[in-house]
Design a protein that fits this description.
6-stranded antiparallel sheet; transport; 32 helices; single chain; HAD-like_sf
Length: about 950
């Protein structure tokens, strides 16, 4: 995001990665009815009567506003009300008349995000995803375990958000809507002075009548109105004014901005408090049980009273342990029963199933012991009442620490969302540009084209362009660029950045969801939901994990019980006061508890959450786990030249005349031809030619219009100026039109191409009249980046449409050995595919529209942030600044993240690989070491905490290559 002037101010800086392109959709508002336009082809129309019959059939349908069918083009344009009729019904109606519908657009695709409560491991997220994917109307559903969210693409004509919520709840999980597609630009107002339903209706009618208002929702109890609007048409202050003007006579309505509480933060705090409180309550019961079981029996004088027999062999200690254990098992631990029930109902098994099996086995065996003691005068047996509550306590402690740590994984994203200031200074200007008034307003009330004053030390509230003043702005929080950037009139500023010293006035160009900050947050949130291919391993393991653990636990129990009952191993192995059955049961419960799929499910998503958030704060946007995983394998990086390795702002350094044409005529024909070209070199040539015209006596900027103008991709342009045929381009264009290139011209070209300059030749009436030499300086960091990539064992390649001599000169300057020159946009993509055929993962770095095919073809496409929206949309990684150092950052961050994910798998599987044999009693015959169930529960909790904390270490990531400070 260099200072680019005022071009393209109306375009969003970043496009939404999850936007769904559809052909429907011109929304308008006509008397409270939202009307959409449907455009499609109808095959088989032969005359006007055919089109009339289709129009007549459609006109009879309820909800059709108008239907026009062109018999010549075979095209139908239908305006309809989606609340009354669906696009599918329209298609069926046309087909019922006997015609074939073609090129029918996809149904409307809406997107909603849902908070999902109660997911414990990967099998839970898979179950929710499966249930959503099987729902009618749902096109795509992605569930993120660590985010506890789902992103659902659905057809609103078939299903709704309420139905999606029902599906999630039927699967056994809680669900709340976070946002839907219409939430992108919403404002909330608190209403005052209203005491009757009629007044609410009056306000709603007033708002509905406004152009640009999509939906109006009024909460009558809370007196809050929520309005979804189009920011290009209307703004929040206009809406507030409309509400206040809706009152008439004695009625006075007042509206104030209402900012709803952040649901995510509230739910996170609620979850933390819930687990903390459950843990404390569990400890309140578990600690006394532990004392009765483990401590008092070792203190004979003080612990004798617990051995007092109440009835038969039932002791005081056993009775107290039962009384204290029962609330923990069934009240505090009821969430495990609920989770197990829902998991088994959907024919899957998760962590809750293992915990419920282990605690129930311990509890009900202890009940059996208690009943036997109650009914017998001589029975002696050991209970496990301490196992169940201590196990539940350790698991709850683990979950409490886990949710605390998981909250830290989204810290980078939360810091980004908090960058926007709460207030801004709005200026009112007169026609002459003088300031009339200055008002401090909430940033939520800023509208497009507002003029805002940014004082030194203040944050920029929204994206805009400087219209007055000069200052330096610190953009490090958005772009990772450490040096403050100079801002002058015409330069863009980004919302959330800090004005360092001078006072500037800016005009708001992007507000709400269109700001760079909002789009970065949306892109990172989408990336955090995306599942990396490496996670498939965890998903596959977790699918069979729990059944395998249960089977292992049963085998362990039988493996100790049967040989013990048959006397195969010595009775000295059996601890005092414990039977063979009890020893085997303890081993079986320990196996059940120590192995948990939670850590396995958290290994990948937590690392991706931290990495994408950290990358965003460093100026590198990685679009999901798939891009992150592919990037770490890259061994070859292909660079575009213009605007990527070079600055992208060509300037003419030399102009020469070859024939007897005057300099003024030479400049006139050049300007006429190149004025219609969008190429950066063409603009540089036009600017230089205009200066030469003025220097050689031209009195105005007038030039003749070109006729028969044609662009020759990768070569130049041609056309006619008056009676003269004009060609402007490179040597290839001249050869294509058989224009002779003299030795003088050839020498001029060679001389400048070896200086890394591009030569633009101008031919008038099939003779070369003159030439321009254009230079585009290499970025100062290009050579350093190529050298550093080489140290990472990554090869650099350059692909450009420029000539070979210039390309080789630039490549030599930056240290690139492999060069492909004179390549058109499709040729770039072909070169990428050729390199991929060698089995090498390829990354492409580009910035222009002509790089888009290559960005898509590459394994990893990296778009320079100052480039075009098309390039940014096509890329997997967006480098917000034009710093090439961020190419190194993206590749290095991906390697560090994948390394961390592998380490997470070691932590997750390590506990199980080491813990399960110990829990099964492998070491017991040789060392006497046993893993009691409550200690196995502590190990299980520790595995999840270890994985999350391991991922959190990525927050300390630092760029390997820093920009040079001049």
């Amino acid at each position: 995001m260099e200072a680019n002037g005022k071009d393209d101010l109306k375009k969003p800086l970043l496009q939404d990665a999850d936007a769904v392109a559809i052909n429907v959709a011109q929304l308008s508002d006509t008397r409270n009815k939202k009307i959409r336009t449907l455009l499609f082809k109808v095959n088989g129309i032969t005359c006007a009567s055919c089109s009339n019959s289709i129009e007549s059939a459609l006109g009879k349908l309820k909800g059709i506003e108008s239907a026009t069918v062109s018999p010549l083009q075979g095209q139908a344009v239908v305006k309809y009300v989606p609340e009354l009729i669906s696009a599918k019904k329209i298609k069926e109606a046309v087909e019922d008349t006997g015609f074939l519908v073609d090129e029918f657009p996809e149904q409307d695709i809406a997107i909603c995000r849902i908070r999902i409560k109660g997911m414990a491991c990967t099998s839970c997220s898979e179950s929710v995803e499966r249930a959503l994917s099987m729902t009618d109307g749902v096109k795509k559903a992605v569930v993120g375990l660590s985010l506890e969210e789902a992103k659902v693409h659905f057809d609103p004509n078939i299903t709704s958000t309420s139905r999606i919520i029902e599906v999630v709840e039927d699967a056994g999980f809680g669900a709340d809507i976070i946002s839907s597609g219409s939430d992108l630009n919403k404002v909330h107002f608190k209403l005052e002075g209203i005491n009757s339903p009629d007044k609410f209706t009056a306000i709603q009618c007033c708002l509905d009548a406004l152009e640009g208002v999509n939906t109006v929702e009024i909460n009558h109890q809370e007196h809050i109105v929520t309005i979804s609007y189009e920011p290009d048409i209307i703004g929040p202050r206009t809406l507030m004014q409309c509400i206040q003007e809706a009152g008439n006579g004695s009625s006075t309505y007042r509206a104030s901005l209402f900012i709803p509480p952040r649901q995510r933060e509230i739910e996170k705090e609620h979850e933390i408090h819930t687990y903390r409180n459950l843990f404390l309550w569990s400890c309140l019961f578990s600690v006394p049980i532990f004392v009765f079981s483990m401590v008092l029996p070792m203190l004979p004088p003080f612990g004798n009273w617990i051995e007092y027999k109440v009835i038969n062999m039932l002791t005081v200690g056993l009775l107290l342990k039962w009384i204290l254990c029962t609330p923990v098992q069934f009240v505090i631990g009821r969430r495990f029963y609920a989770g197990s029930y829902h998991a088994l109902r959907r024919k899957s098994a998760n962590m809750d199933v293992l915990i419920a099996l282990g605690t129930n086995a311990a509890y009900f065996y202890s009940i059996y012991i208690m009943i036997k003691a109650l009914t017998s005068n001589s029975f002696e047996g050991q209970d496990f009442f301490e196992t169940s509550p201590m196990l539940i306590s350790f698991i709850l402690l683990g979950k409490y620490l886990e949710v605390l740590a998981k909250g830290k994984t989204s810290d980078a994203l939360e810091k980004l969302t908090e960058l926007s200031p709460e207030t801004a200074y709005l200026l009112t200007m007169d026609g002459a540009g003088n300031i009339i008034s200055e008002t401090e307003i909430s940033t939520q009330l800023i509208q497009k084209n507002d003029v805002l004053k940014i004082v030194p030390g203040a944050k920029v509230p929204v994206d805009g362009v400087v219209i007055n003043g000069h200052s330096y702005v610190n953009e490090s929080m958005i772009t990772g660029e450490a040096r403050p950037v100079s801002k002058m009139p015409g330069d863009k500023v980004i919302g959330g950045t800090v004005n360092e010293n001078g006072c500037v006035l800016i005009k708001a160009t992007h507000i709400g969801s269109e700001t760079a900050l909002s789009q970065i947050v949306q892109l990172v949130e989408a990336a955090q939901l995306a599942r990396a291919p490496v996670q498939k391993l965890a998903d596959k393991i977790s699918r069979y994990f729990v059944p395998t653990v249960v089977l292992t636990a049963v085998v362990t129990w039988l493996g100790w019980f049967i040989p013990g009952a048959l006397g195969i191993y010595p009775s000295s192995w059996i601890p005092k006061g414990m039977s063979v059955f009890e020893l085997a049961l303890q081993f079986g419960i320990s196996v059940l508890v120590v192995a948990c799929p939670c850590a396995l499910g958290l290994a990948t998503p937590t690392a991706i959450m931290v990495a994408t958030g950290k990358g965003a704060s460093q100026g590198v946007l990685i679009k999901g786990g798939n891009a992150l995983e592919k990037a770490h394998k890259v061994k070859l990086v292909v660079f575009d030249k213009t605007g990527t390795l070079t600055v992208g702002k060509p300037t003419v350094v030399s102009a020469v005349l070859i024939t007897n044409i005057t300099m003024k005529d030479f400049c006139d024909v050049t300007i006429s031809a190149e004025a219609n070209s969008e190429h950066p070199i063409a603009k540089a040539v036009v600017d230089h030619a205009k200066k030469l015209r003025l220097k050689h006596g031209a009195e105005n900027d007038y030039h003749l219009e070109i006729e028969d103008f044609e662009v020759h991709t990768g070569a130049g342009v041609s056309g006619r100026v008056g009676e003269r045929k004009i060609l402007v381009g490179n040597r290839r264009l001249m050869h294509a039109f058989n224009i002779p290139v003299s030795s003088e011209v050839d020498n001029y070209i060679s001389e400048h191409e070896h200086l890394a300059r591009t030569c633009v030749l101008v031919s008038v009436d099939e003779k070369i009249a003159g030439a321009f030499a254009v230079t585009d300086p290499v970025k100062p960091d290009a050579a350093r980046v190529v050298s550093f990539l080489h140290s990472m064992d990554i090869t650099s390649v350059m692909v450009t449409g420029d000539n070979w001599a210039t390309a080789r000169a630039i490549a030599s300057e930056v240290g690139i050995q492999m060069v492909f020159a004179e390549t058109d946009p499709l040729g770039k993509a072909d070169k990428i595919k050729e390199l991929q055929l060698k089995g090498t993962p390829v990354a492409m770095v580009g910035d222009g529209i002509n790089d888009s095919p290559a960005l898509v073809a590459a394994d990893v496409g990296m778009a320079i942030g100052a480039g075009t929206d098309v390039a940014i949309e096509a890329a997997d990684v967006v480098l917000i600044k034009s710093n090439l150092e961020d190419v190194v950052t993206a590749l290095d961050l991906s390697r560090k993240t994948m390394s961390r994910i592998r380490l997470n798998y070691v932590w997750a599987l390590g506990y199980n690989v080491l813990g399960m044999p110990i829990a099964a009693g492998v070491l017991f015959p040789f060392t006497g070491i046993r893993l009691p169930p409550w200690l196995a529960g502590a190990c299980m909790a520790a595995s999840s905490i270890s994985v999350v904390c391991s991922s959190l270490l990525l927050q300390s990531y630092k760029k390997p290559l820093h920009p040079r400070v001049n």
